[in-house]
Design brief:
The chain is of the alpha+beta class. 19% of the residues lie in helices and 20% in strands. The N terminus is likely disordered.
């Protein structure tokens, strides 16, 4: 009878988790919710500006459409790219669950970057 244990029977030594950076805690006290069905985007070298609003024109043949703008978010280009990736992922997950959304317009071809 052998008293020797197999290596696989030994429990591994406890290890500390790898450092992944600080823990982020979101404080949503005082947050304001706003509904938007219109969004416009403009940009410069230093910033990307998102403007959100509400289109109350429910009839398609209206001669004038009034959009009440209610929020403006100004991002650095890096934050805008992160937002783009997050939104793309959210849309892909939504379409995987509920089906592809037809936007009613041809998808724009991607503009090559230099």
């Amino acid at each position: 009878m052998s008293t020797k244990q197999k290596d696989s029977d030994e429990s591994p030594a406890p290890t500390r988790p790898a450092a992944t950076g600080p823990v982020v805690k979101f404080d949503d006290t005082g947050i304001i919710n706003a509904y938007a069905n219109v969004c416009n985007v403009s940009s410069s070298r230093e910033e990307v500006v998102l403007v959100f609003g509400l289109n109350n024109a429910w009839e398609r043949d209206a001669s004038e459409v009034h959009v009440k703008l209610n929020s403006r978010v100004i991002l650095s280009p890096f934050a805008a790219k992160r937002l783009s990736l997050l939104l793309n992922s959210a849309v892909q997950q939504h379409e995987a669950r509920f089906g592809v959304m037809d936007m009613g317009v041809a998808q724009a071809e991607r503009i090559p970057t230099k």
